[in-house]
Amino acid sequence: MNQTFLHITIFFTAYGPPGPLNYAAFFLTFLLFFITILANLSLMLVIYLESSLHKPMYIFLFNLAVNGLIGSLSVCPKIMDNLVNDIKDISHEGCILQVFFCNVYATCAYVILAVMAYDRYVSICKPLQYHSIMTPSKVKMLLALVYFIPITMLAFQMFITSRLPVCKYNINKLFCDNLAVVKLSCVESALSNLYGICIIASLVVLPFVLVVLSYVKILLVCLKASKESRKKAFNTCAPHLITFINFSTAILFSVIYNRHSTATREVNVLISVQFILFPPLVHPIIYGIRTKEIRTCITKIIRTRIFPNSLDFPHLKSEPKLVPIMTLDGTAAGQGLRFESQV
After folding, report:
1. Phi/psi zone of residue 162: left (φ > 0), alpha (ψ -120 to 50 degrees), beta?
2. What angle do CA 252, 257, 261 make, to 5 degrees?
3. Which are the contacts of 181, defined by CB distance < 8 A and separation ≥ 6?
4. Angle made by CA atoms 111, 152, 187, in degrees to the nearest 5
């Protein structure tokens, strides 16, 4: 019978039996997962509610937060489920879907960071032409490319992987990745390997090079600018640069982890959690702390929408007080109302 019509179950061997370590990992994963969801949704809500943030940079940041949610939701619930259950398994179809959404998270994040770097380059190096270059139609086109190219390429990769015959059923990982699924096959697939290299080159290496080139040009412009302009450029680019370095580090650790599955169970847990949770968790926090406009909008929303009356102190309010109204010759003409502070 054709294997594609059979229900194939894949087992994860990196978890070990339920115990104190698994429960501790579950608690840590759940805590980081919850904070990640809350932080990204909060950032998205702030950008959506505040019209002053409806600019290309913040629109790209909104999509970076959406992408972070995709990554967290595609992997973390299954990891937490396996940490506390006796049987750590997933269907072959579920494994393929997990690989797909996990790869969408990784590649789209890199492409979004490259687009954001281009936006910063235009903003700093061509400030007078910024609005004519970063038009609404161009922003929409860039966002369409951000999702269309990676999703199309990854969908074809998943099609190739899903057609490989499976003769092994154990993965020594906490979640599925494409290389681990390919290794389950009985045959070597030159097409899968070659196409995987193409995806890495076009969706990881190329965006990385574009970001580096953008910052080289920004640096050259800043060296010729005044001290005040350099400070302003640094404040503008710092959140994006920190985010880019953080995500690149996570990707590097993930690649090493995928190529060396002989690591201890503790290292497997750490690497899996840091790749899936740390970048989506850190990115909104970095932008919330380092970006003045977002900090101002968060304060505004808290004061006007969440606690509209919390900053009103009745004992400090001015109250109307009857005071004499003097005429030009200095005599009292009567009494009137005048607002005088009690403080």
Report:
1. alpha
2. 165
3. 95, 96, 99, 161, 164, 171
4. 110
Q: Is 99 exposed, middle or buried (0-12, 13-18, 19+ CB in 10 A)?
A: buried
Walk along the chain (343 residues) and give the pLDDT tens digit of each residue: 445 445 788 998 878 777 888 888 889 889 989 999 999 999 999 999 888 889 999 999 999 999 999 999 999 899 889 888 888 889 999 999 999 999 999 999 999 999 999 999 999 888 889 999 999 999 999 999 999 999 999 999 999 999 888 888 888 888 888 888 888 888 887 888 889 889 988 998 899 999 999 999 988 888 887 778 778 778 778 888 888 888 888 777 776 666 655 556 566 656 666 777 788 888 888 887 777 888 888 888 878 766 676 545 444 444 444 555 454 454 545 444 443 443 3
User: How remote is the C-alpha of 317 from its chain's centroid?
Assistant: 44
Q: What is the side-by-side order of every strand in the sheet holding 89-91?
A: 89-91, 9-12, 170-171
- 135: three-class secondary structure by DSSP: coil
pTM listed for this prediction:
0.81
Residue found under tokens 């999702």:
147
Q: What is the DSSP letter of 342?
A: -
- For residue 340, list its beta bridge partners: 319
CA distance 74 to 9: 18
For 117, the enclosing helix (H) or strand (E) is: helix 92-125
Task: Enumerate the β-bridge partners of residue 11.
Answer: 89, 170
